[in-house]
Automatic annotation (TrEMBL):
Alphabetical UniProt keywords: Copper, Disulfide bond, Glycoprotein, Metal-binding, Oxidoreductase, Signal, TPQ
Cofactor binding: number and manner: Contains 1 topaquinone per subunit.
Taxon lineage: Eukaryota, Viridiplantae, Streptophyta, Embryophyta, Tracheophyta
Domain called Copper amine oxidase N3-terminal: residue spans: 119-222
UniProt PTM comment: Topaquinone (TPQ) is generated by copper-dependent autoxidation of a specific tyrosyl residue.
Organism: Flemingia macrophylla
UniProt protein name: Amine oxidase
Length: 676
């Protein structure tokens, strides 16, 4: 084992030496995430203006320049617009929104947020809140009652949502509260499999104290046996070892990374980072060989929200309806990727930085990996045997570029891939792995169960609670420019009336261009349709509208009632597709302030204005969902469950854009068995 570790370290060092790690070598891009120096600067500016008082940083990110400025920067040699940071802080029990100009060192705007809901939880306050029970007498009693030692228990913070609590007039009465629940940590690293069920503390985050506590019932803590997942702690036998395997690129990677700008094959784009959203892909454009120019595809794309409602209505679980982006920060939850296992050997890495609750920069080393994916797949092929005395076979290998992150939000690990293909497609992959949300119960066999347990009995005393995962993507497509339209092409059955043909029916395409937001709200899976974003002002030589279409992934619709509180807050999942006119401040589908939000600032509410969306700069919002009925194989750690969707050029190119392409150069492979 030791040797394997050393070998891994050597390879990592080797890779780090070969690949570009060049944060400062080119002029900064206006969409670059804040650097550690900039984060420190912002902290100093904000603290100087609020001396001798405590101010905590809940969100620090790039206050991005207006789209028009970015576009004119991108298409000329203009200097970058001034760098600004957007800050949300807690100060004297209020949420303070600031815009900080980093070149002049001043706060250019500052206002107190007056609406419902609270900013993202910081990592620091979650850690502090999780320690509070240990100094709380009633909790110590609870441990004693269960025969557990303090040193063997760890706690974590859970957001509590909003369940119709009185609409208090006075802001001071509306409190930032979370629940703290605890786990037994002795004998296994799998905390989440071993909850101290029935015990919960209610914590006021601003006052940082326990305001309520309950110990409702004595439920057996699931045993450690069978919960471990670390190879070093598991006893043999293991599955037979696979032989060594790797993709090698003897002449180095085919992409270049300058700062955060990436170019590869016919693509170029920018990889940004935001503490709330995680990865942000911007200004993606593709080189069109026939037109001999780069053409714009995606101005900006990111995961706007991730809604994960659990389906147990009892005291300790009913509020478990997470918004992983707006409450926990999908970006600040990103994990350092493990070279060679999270990403292949030919990957390059980028770091990310976010602001801690005191404003100081925190580094996530190897937060992104970027690599060329080659798995022996086929990009296109044909075998022709109809020509006499000749067999023609043409094949091209499929190689794509992947940008990957992993965000670990408490128990769950989400693998998020952005995959760009030379054919012009962008594929979005999500992988769900990690540990299930587990509830302790008395049962050891389904025969004993006489009531609804709201989940699956996975192991002795361990219930995997039913839940969903809804990923809402923000996709600001700019197909050959900003002015775009959304077209719904329904495939409809037509009865053939012409009696000269024996056919009774056929299907055809009936396209409608959405005029307003209401026309573009779609629940997928009920009737066949193609969903396109087109540039109505540009046509191919053949006269078709230039566009890209959305090829949806797994279709899931919310199963909660519309009037249920979590669903009011997550009403943006009521449709799989929404289209809005571009508006810089409409970025977060669940609203700007999601913790304890009341659903009054969601995509579903903005859409009620029913604005014009035809031939305008538009944003496509797409929600891909998974209903998760846990099974025993998901325990003690879950094999990755994958899903994804695609944006695919559709009459964007005049013909197959990868016709005149060759498969990658042959790399000599020892003892190859094919004949040529
Ligand atoms: C942009 O969106 C915000 C939030 O929905 C709204 O208050 C504002 O009026 C919008 N701006 C425009 C120009 O529509
Ligand atoms: C290649 O073949 C030779 C001779 O059959 C064998 O000794 C060697 O182990 C093989 N190498 C690999 C990498 O399979
Ligand atoms: Cu799940």
């Amino acid at each position: 084992m030791r040797e394997i570790m050393d070998a891994k370290k050597r390879v990592t060092l080797f890779c780090a030496l070969i690949f570009w790690r060049c944060a400062q070598c080119d002029k900064p891009h206006p969409l670059d995430p804040l650097t550690p120096d900039e984060l420190n600067l912002v902290r100093n500016i904000v603290q100087t203006s609020h001396p001798s008082t405590t101010i905590t940083f809940q969100y620090v990110g790039l206050d991005e320049p207006n789209k028009a400025e970015i576009l004119s920067w991108a298409s000329s040699t203009k200097p970058s617009p001034p760098r600004r940071a957007s800050v949300v802080a807690r100060f004297q029990d209020e949420s303070l929104e600031m815009s900080v100009d980093m070149s002049s060192g001043s706060i250019v705007s500052s206002k107190v947020y007056e609406g419902h809901g609270f900013p993202m939880l910081s990592m620091g306050e979650q850690a502090r809140a999780s320690l509070l029970p240990f100094r709380y007498e009633a909790f110590r009693e609870s441990l004693k009652k269960r025969g557990l030692k303090k040193s063997e228990v760890v706690c974590a913070c859970f957001t509590i949502g909003w369940f119709g609590e009185a609409k208090s007039k006075s802001k001071s009465k509306s409190k930032r509260k979370v629940k703290v629940k605890c786990y037994y940590a002795k004998g296994s690293a799998n905390l989440y499999a071993r909850p101290l069920e029935g015990v919960a503390a209610l914590v006021d985050l601003d006052d940082m104290k326990i305001v309520d506590y309950s110990d409702r019932e004595l439920v057996p803590v699931p045993k450690a046996e069978g919960t471990e997942y670390r190879a070093s702690k598991l006893k043999p036998p293991f599955l037979p070892n696979l032989k060594g395997i790797a993709v090698t690129q003897p002449s180095g990677p085919g992409f270049t990374i300058r700062g955060h700008s990436v170019s590869w094959a016919n693509w170029k784009f920018h990889v940004g980072f935001d503490t709330r959203a995680g990865p942000i892909i911007s200004l993606a454009s593709i080189f069109d060989q026939q037109k001999q120019k780069h053409r714009r595809v995606l101005y900006r794309g990111f995961i706007s929200e991730l809604f994960v409602p659990y389906q147990d209505p009892t005291e300790e679980w009913y509020y478990t309806t997470y918004f992983d982006s707006g409450e926990y920060g999908f970006g600040q939850s990103m994990s350092s990727l493990q070279p060679l296992t999270d990403c292949p050997p030919n990957a390059a890495f980028l770091d990310a930085y976010y602001a801690a609750s005191d404003g100081t920069p925190v580094k996530i080393a190897n937060a992104f990996c970027i690599f060329e994916r080659y798995a022996g797949d086929i990009m296109w092929r044909h075998t022709e045997i109809a020509i006499p005395n000749e067999v023609i076979t043409e094949v091209r290998s499929d190689v794509s570029l992947v940008v990957r992150i992993v965000s670990t939000v408490g128990n769950y690990d989400y693998v998020i891939d952005w995959e760009l293909k030379p054919s012009g497609s962008i594929k979005f992959g999500v992988g769900l792995t990690g540990i299930l949300g587990i509830k302790a119960g008395a049962y050891t066999n389904t025969d004993q169960i006489k009531e609804d347990i709201y989940g699956t009995l996975l192991a002795d005393n361990s219930i995997g609670i039913y839940h969903d995962h809804f990923f809402t993507y923000y996709l600001d497509l700019d197909i050959d420019g900003e002015a775009n339209s959304f077209v719904k092409s329904n495939l409809e059955t037509v009865r053939v009336k012409d009696h000269t043909t024996p056919r009774k029916s056929r299907w055809t395409v009936v396209s409608e261009t959405a005029k307003t937001e209401a026309d573009a709200r779609i629940k997928l899976g009920f009737k066949p349709c193609e969903l396109l974003v087109v540039n109505p002002n540009k046509k191919t030589k053949q006269g078709n509208k230039i566009g890209y279409r959305l090829l949806p992934g797994p279709v899931a619709h919310p199963l909660l009632l519309n009037e249920d509180y979590p669903q009011i807050r997550a009403a943006f999942t009521n449709y799989n597709v929404w289209v809005t006119p571009y508006n810089k401040s409409e970025k977060w589908a669940g609203g700007s302030y999601v913790d304890r939000s009341r659903g009054d600032d969601t995509l579903a509410i903005w859409g009620l204005r029913n604005r014009q969306i035809e031939n305008k700069d538009i944003v496509l919002w797409y929600t891909m969902g998974f209903h998760h009925v846990p099974s025993q194989e998901d325990f003690p750690v879950m094999p990755t469950l994958s899903g994804g969707f695609e944006l695919r050029p559709t009459n964007f190119f005049e013909s197959n854009p990868v016709l005149k392409t060759k498969s990658p150069t042959n790399v000599h492979w020892p003892n190859c068995t094919f004949q040529n």
